[in-house]
Design goal:
Strand content: 5-15%
Strand order of the largest sheet: 4-3-6-5
Helix content: 40-55%
Distance between the termini: 39 Å
Order of helices and strands: HHHHEHEHHHEEHHEHEH
Largest sheet: 4 strands, mixed
Radius of gyration: 18 Å
Structural class: alpha/beta
Number of strands: 6
Shape: globular
Length: 281
């Protein structure tokens, strides 16, 4: 993990940049963390081929999967756990993006696109605006089991894809992407990036059984999954304008999180906020 990669002397212009953008401008940055812009089509849906993974890649998947699996009961939301069952994810071997795409398409009309790495923001949301989740198909190396700064398919598949099987969440996700592409003012784009961070990546949900996790960044992180529901975190009720103003640091455990009451609320209140801000398309 990079040591204190956030800027200590932040200019007004830097406040309009995401943490990843600021990190990418630093010296000695991991090249895997520099967003790439696609210059052509990528394999999608049933055109995605299954890689010839070495045995240690399957072992890495199994290690990561089993570690998270132990922590999720009583912490992950039921919609996520049901999505795991629907997609048929198991620790035995790396899943097939093609197979997941076929199941998502059948469930909620979403598909998967195989991408080469961390995408340029507009490319990333352009896929999701047409209900395609952009996913890598490579996994971190064994020496990066504890932490990798780069995206990999464990985060993409294990963290994100199960929740996409919920129709309210997948509808929200597609509308969010369309809204993001419609925004042009840098300040508004930063508001939307913060909203994405505190919902899709680090969101909590209130349930009759107690508070649960739905954010992919928490669900795929062994430290965050325990930390997020601890007394060390201040949890604030869901309010889009408040979320859009909340800064965050991607390199540390999150001290502030937001909780929705349902995915219906997430979808409907984001749409109302987007309309109020003039972002609806």
């Amino acid at each position: 993990m990079p040591e204190d990669p956030h800027m200590t002397n932040t200019s007004p212009e830097d406040y309009l940049k995401s943490s990843y953008d600021r990190y990418a401008e630093m010296d000695d940055v991991d090249p895997r963390c520099i967003p790439i812009k696609l210059d052509g089509a990528v394999p999608e849906h049933d055109a995605i081929e299954y890689p010839e993974y070495p045995d240690h890649d399957h072992e890495t998947w199994k290690t990561l999967y089993k570690r998270q699996e132990r922590e999720l009961p009583g912490r992950a939301c039921e919609e996520y756990l049901e999505g795991m069952r629907i997609l048929g994810l198991t620790p035995d071997r790396l899943p097939s993006l093609r197979d997941i795409s076929l199941k998502l398409d059948d469930m909620v009309g979403w598909r998967v696109a195989r991408i080469p790495g961390l995408l340029d923001t507009n490319d990333f949301f352009s896929f999701m605006a047409r209900a395609h989740f952009p996913s890598t198909d490579y996994i971190r190396q064994p020496e990066e089991i504890e932490y990798t700064p780069a995206p990999d398919c464990f985060h993409d598949i294990f963290g994100h894809m199960p929740t996409l099987t919920d129709p309210f969440f997948s509808n929200f996700f597609q509308y969010f992407a369309q809204t993001f592409l419609h925004a042009s003012d840098p300040k508004e784009i930063r508001q939307l990036e913060r909203f994405y961070w505190f919902t899709v990546e680090f969101g909590l949900i209130n349930t009759p059984e107690g508070r649960r996790i739905y954010g992919a960044g928490i669900l795929s992180s062994p430290k965050e999954v325990v930390h997020s529901l601890s007394d060390a975190v201040e949890v604030i009720d869901f309010e889009p304008e408040r979320i859009g103003a909340q800064e965050y640091d991607v390199w540390h455990l999150q001290p502030i999180l937001f909780a929705i009451d349902s995915f219906e609320q997430l979808d409907s209140e984001f749409r109302a906020w987007a309309k109020f801000k003039g972002w609806d398309n």
